[in-house]
Amino acid sequence: MNYLKTYRTSVLISLLMMTNVVYAERVKDLSDIAGVRSNQLVGYGLVVGLDGSGDQTAQTPFTVQSMRSMLAQFGITLPANATPQLKNVAAVTVQATLPAFSKPGHKIDVTVSSIGNAKSLRGGSLIMTPLKGADGNIYAIAQGNLVVSGFGAAKDGSSVTVNIPSTGRIPNGGMVERGVKTSFNMGNHLILNLHSADFTTASRLAEAINTKLGEGTASPMDGSSVQVVAPRDPSQRVSFMSIIENIELQPGQTSAKVIINSRTGTVVIGSHVSVGPSAVSHGNLTVRIKAGANVAQPNALAQGDTVVVPNIDIQIEEANNRMFLFNPGVSLDEIVRAVNEVGAAPGDLVAILEALKEAGSLNAELIVI
Q1: Ordered strands of the 267-269 beta sheet
Q2: Per-residue CA distances from 60 to 30, 91, 159, 166 (Å)
Q3: How far is CA 209 from CA 119, 185, 199, 212, 264, in A?
Q4: Range in 42-46, 112-116, 305-309, 358-362 the model is least confident about
Q5: What is the pLDDT of residue 163?
Q6: Which of 9, 76, 144, 329 has the highest Cβ tally under 10 A?
Q7: Are 246 and 26 in contact (CB under 8 A)?
Q8: Beta bridge partners of residue 314, listed in sequence order
Q9: Rounded Cα–Cα distance for residues 15 and 9 (Å)
Q10: Structure pTM?
């Protein structure tokens, strides 16, 4: 058992030691062009054609109201006192992402999610739904048959559900009706924004561009942005950015961090993490309590009652404590070796790291998510 714990801890941490390898990344993988971005779209619509798994109209009156409005557009007016039971209709929200440079006629994927109490959207079709941006304008129209990965089944009071049947997707179900203007062809400069702010990476990015295209082409603005002089002609600017985005450089290494996921017990240790002089003792204390009962019965001629006497058995077991010493500036390799020697599982490793941080011996930022 200790071997398995040691193996899991070793695999979890030793993989991170490979980050010391020098590697290069392309500019397109490290940064984005300022002003060139995608936009979120959202809409409200109806899914029809469900097999009795739609909204229950008593709890979702807005579904009936939406159906009345849709039918009115086709010249059909329902009586005011009529309350149709629309078991094959569900009210849904429709979400999509409008990529940069999208033009009218382009197709995008859409996600459809029930907002009522529909049990499943399987087999349904989305009626034409306008998709609006944050400014309230319509940028796309969605319609089509849903693809639902989840399903549910019920019989004799028992039910089983796999995945989420109340959400589905329509591949290429959205048609772009309006594009979004970008600042790509405006001005004499383009700004590259790094995905992760780092002064070293920004400096190296500007240096790599200047080496490729000439001194003065790029200049760092701060730790996350680099300004690049670009041609005004759109066709030349596209070719210019094609050259830049394929330039390779070695990004700067991030600061020393230890990431702990408190829900899963996952521990990620960066390659620059070091530990100051300290001593750590690791041991497990196990307490077992067994509750039983004994019957106390008086002698035949004695006066008394038969009673039940509790019998509590407490056993305490403590594993052999092991202590290891961290010398000043110990490396990640030595930390891994020391942790493996005491057979610490990821959960034990979290406690050790938190104690080292409290003692001021862990030279890294400890982040708990």
Answers
A1: 267-269, 257-260, 365-368
A2: 47, 9, 23, 15
A3: 55, 20, 16, 5, 42
A4: 305-309
A5: 67
A6: 9
A7: yes
A8: 289
A9: 10
A10: 0.67
